[in-house]
Write a structure and sequence with these properties.
Kinase-like_dom_sf, Transferase(Phosphotransferase), domain 1, Protein kinase domain-containing protein, alpha+beta, Ser-Thr/Tyr_kinase_cat_dom, transferase, cell membrane, six-stranded mixed sheet
């Protein structure tokens, strides 16, 4: 859940709405047309339309959520909308559940604020399952604000799917804004791929499982009657349960997709550098294909063990998409950029299949990117492949494993695997 502030695209600190701001085109895109505009912190009228093809998703109208100027009015309207589907917690209850938001239970910190582990049971609410939870506390001075909090409540209050993190409840008390989720014991995919000090790498089969789970979550969003555009698909927003099942989290930037003859939603550019689709960054035009691009970037991170953007690397290697493209069409070239921590324990055909799929996803022409059902079908077809690189002689048997595998010397990632240079590895003669 931790995001680098320098990587964020145009996220603004929370501030009260004003009459000149609340009717901007961006807010119409997020919240629909406002029924009135007053310079009040909590003055919203909200419409979230569209319904995925599942009975649990209800279509909301403007009248369902009419948010007044006080937290009491907000709670009243949300309670009328969601009934018993979400719990309305008090701050005193959440302080007790997290031992007063103790630093000992801190899970992470991002643009929204801090996330703490807590514990809830029936002593808080009748019928509430005894379980650990993740409690996300809004930082009033942070990069996200009331509107993002509200978007998460609206979306996750309606959306239910095995590959979306479950929202258990919320708190809106005076200036406090809190979200309470199911606890994901394995943390984020980001930590497993990039956190230093981890001696055990994610196995190839687990990476493939995570990719499929995340794809199913995204397919659910895109498959709605009015598609939901996630807009912030990245490794830090892919959370893992105890069995490494992937669930998408953080819906603060999600958007309802275009309606009727419209082909896109126009909005302010927001997201994370390296993951955002180039046409969205340059024009502000947002479609489900923008999410597909981000998905392709995550596939490349799963293959290489490298982040989408790494400023500390040589200039031609800083952008993961640009660096990997020449390597993705050949198994022999692909080994030069595979995550060395896999130590050859990956399917040669499977890696190539994932590489080719990633290449399609990051196509500069959005129309040429595949749709999520086709992506899922491709990934699932790779699960049964057993041609391990180390077994078939496409990975040096003497390659060191562990947290320093492949990294001790300059260019070891390439030269250690028989790839003398990027130019040689990516040349047409390499097949």
């Amino acid at each position: 859940m931790k995001d680098s502030k320098s990587e964020k695209l145009n996220r603004q600190p929370w501030k009260p709405l004003t009459a000149s701001y609340c009717c901007s085109s961006d807010d119409r895109a997020i919240f629909g047309n406002f029924s009135r505009c007053r310079p009040s912190k909590s003055e919203f009228s909200k419409n979230i339309g569209g319904a995925p093809p599942l009975p649990s998703f209800r279509k909301l109208t403007f009248s369902d959520v009419s948010l007044g100027s006080s937290s009491a009015r907000i709670n009243e309207d949300l309670a009328q909308t969601f009934g018993g589907d979400l719990y309305d917690f008090q701050m005193s209850e959440l302080r007790g559940a997290t031992q007063n938001f103790s630093s000992n239970f801190l899970l992470g910190e991002g643009g929204f604020g801090r996330v703490h582990k807590g514990y809830v049971d029936e002593s808080l609410r009748a019928g509430l399952k005894a379980q650990p939870v993740a409690v996300k506390l809004l930082d009033i001075e942070g990069l996200q604000g009331h509107r993002e909090w509200l978007a998460e409540v609206i979306f996750l209050g309606q959306l239910r799917h095995p590959n979306l993190v479950k929202l258990i409840g919320y708190c809106c008390e005076d200036e406090e804004r809190v979200l309470v989720y199911e606890f994901m014991p394995r943390g984020s995919l980001e930590n497993h791929l990039f956190k230093r000090g981890l001696s055990i790498s994610l196995p190839w089969a687990t990476r493939l499982k995570i990719a499929i789970g995340a794809a199913k979550g995204l397919a659910f969003l895109h498959g709605a009657e009015k598609p939901v555009i996630y807009r912030d698909f990245k490794t830090s927003n892919i959370l893992l349960d105890s069995d490494f099942n992937a669930k998408l989290s953080d819906f603060g930037l999600a958007k309802m997709g275009p309606e009727g003859s419209n082909t896109h939603v126009t909005t302010r550019v927001m997201g994370t550098y390296g993951y955002a689709a180039p046409e969205y960054v340059s024009t502000g035009h947002l479609t489900t294909k923008s999410d597909i691009y981000s998905f392709g970037v995550v596939l490349l991170e799963l293959l290489t063990g490298r982040r989408a953007m790494e400023k500390a690397r040589p200039k031609n290697e800083q952008n993961l998409v640009d660096w990997t493209k020449p390597y993705l069409t050949s198994s022999r070239r692909l080994r030069c950029i595979m995550d060395p921590r896999l130590a050859g324990q990956y399917s040669v055909k499977g890696a190539k299949g994932m590489g080719l799929l990633a290449l399609q996803c990051v196509n500069l022409n959005p129309k040429d990117r595949p749709k999520m059902p086709a992506i899922i079908e491709t990934l699932e077809s790779l699960q049964q492949l057993k041609d391990m690189a180390i077994t078939y002689g496409q990975w040096p048997a003497s390659t060191k494993t562990g947290r320093n595998a492949g990294y001790p010397a300059k260019e070891r990632r390439q030269s250690g695997f028989g790839c003398k240079s990027a130019a040689v590895a990516a040349s047409p003669r390499s097949k």
